[in-house]
Amino acid sequence: MIRLVTDSTCDLPQEWRNRLDLTVVPINIQFGTETYLEGVTIDESTFYRRVNELGMIPKTSQPAPGVLADVYRRLGAAGDEVLSLHITGKLSGTVNSAEQARKMVADQVRVQVFDSLAGSAGLGFMVWEAHTLAQAGATMEDILARLSYIREHIQIALTLKTLKYAQMSGRVTTIQHVLASLLDLKPIITLEAGSLDVTGRRRTRRQALARLLDLVEERVGTGPLNLAVIHAHAPQDARQVLGQAQLRFRCEHSFVAPLATSIAANLGPGTLGVAAYPL
User: Fold this and answer.
1) What was the pLDDT predicted at 269?
2) pLDDT reported for residue 171
3) Torsion on CA atoms 15, 20, 22, 24, rounded to nearest 10
4) According to the model, what pLDDT value does residue 186 have?
5) What is the pLDDT of residue 178?
6) pLDDT at position 100, please?
7) Cβ contacts of residue 93 below 8 Å, gap of 6+?
8) Residue 160 in 3-state DSSP?
9) 266 within 8 A of 57, measured Cβ to Cβ
10) Are the CB atoms for 265 and 58 separated by under 8 Å?
11) HSE-up of 196 (CA within 13 Å, CB side)?
12) Are the C-beta atoms of 205 and 186 separated by less than 8 Å?
């Protein structure tokens, strides 16, 4: 049996998550001397309240290798294999922690670590497909081949409602110098080979949201495809964009999900993104 592990940047609707045999290891969120576990000891509303109260962006950090090693030992105690899928290693040290943990348990459990080069709903779709294949009896090699296909073909693009959070955050240094020159323009940020990059800008929020769907058509096609809309405190905009996408594309599976707070910490409320890949 193949057991799945991921981190709390994995975005899926709760009803999807409830159907998965999945262990989620939380990212650490630190406000000053106070440390919280994402999705365990801090929720979305508390997160934004603390940001507004303190006027600061929290620091985030990966789970310690020892925490992941304990998870691997527990899941592999009965002889099961473990597949550990995580947020892009170019933006987080979680994959590195997972690799260290894999080495710590190498003589006890067979663990395969997979760098999604993505996060949020991109990682969510990979976890969901890995679960589906594992339940159907696929081998680890078959699952990794499918995950590699998704990683290669997925398109992830975001737009920010405000630049304040990204400018305050030290974790998006790859785009800070571009953001500083945008004034009130709305940036289009894409995930390119696991790194954030500003690939366009629009004058209005409406134009920026429309551009996200244009990018899906340009880079993925019109379908059949799987598509997700993720958002940080913008559910109405997210539902509207999903409705437009479902009319425009042949969506096999589609959903709306909140953006993980550890990612939203660097991008801010109002951030909205689209993740899509061809079947």
Assistant:
1) 85
2) 47
3) -10
4) 87
5) 59
6) 98
7) 61, 62
8) coil
9) yes
10) yes
11) 24
12) yes
Contacts of 160 (CB under 8 A, 6+ apart): 166, 186, 187, 189, 267, 268, 270, 271
* Token output for 19: 């159907």
> Quick count: other Cβ atoms within 10 Å of Cβ 199?
14
pLDDT digits (tens, 9 = 90+) for 247-257: 999 999 999 99
CB 187 within 8 A of CB 165: no
> What is the helix (H) or strand (E) element at residue 272, kind and residue range?
strand 272-278
Amino acid making up residue 260: A
170 CB-contact burial (10 Å; exposed 0-12 / middle 13-18 / buried 19+): exposed
Neighbouring C-beta atoms of residue 66, cutoff 10 Å = 12
pLDDT of residue 156: 97
Structure tokens belonging to residue 26 = 């939380």
How far apart are alpha carbons 250 and 271 in whole angstroms? 25
Distance, in Å, from the CA atom of 250 to the CA atom of 226, rounded to the nearest integer, reads 8
Pairing relation of β-strands 272-278 and 155-159? antiparallel
Is residue 12 within 8 A of residue 128, CB to CB? The reply is yes
String of b and e for 28-42 (b: at least 16 CB within 10 Å)?
A: bbebeeeebebbeeb
Predicted confidence at residue 181, as pLDDT, reads: 55
Identity of the amino acid at 194: G
Closest CA to 195 of 166, 156, 169, 238: 156
Q: If the chain, 279 residues long, is cut into consecutive pieces of 10 residues, what is the mean pLDDT of each piece?
A: 97 94 94 90 84 82 97 96 97 96 97 97 98 97 98 96 70 53 76 87 92 97 97 95 98 96 86 97
- Name the pTM for this structure: 0.92
User: Cα separation of 81 and 168, whole Å?
Assistant: 41
In angstroms, the CA 123 to CA 230 distance is 12
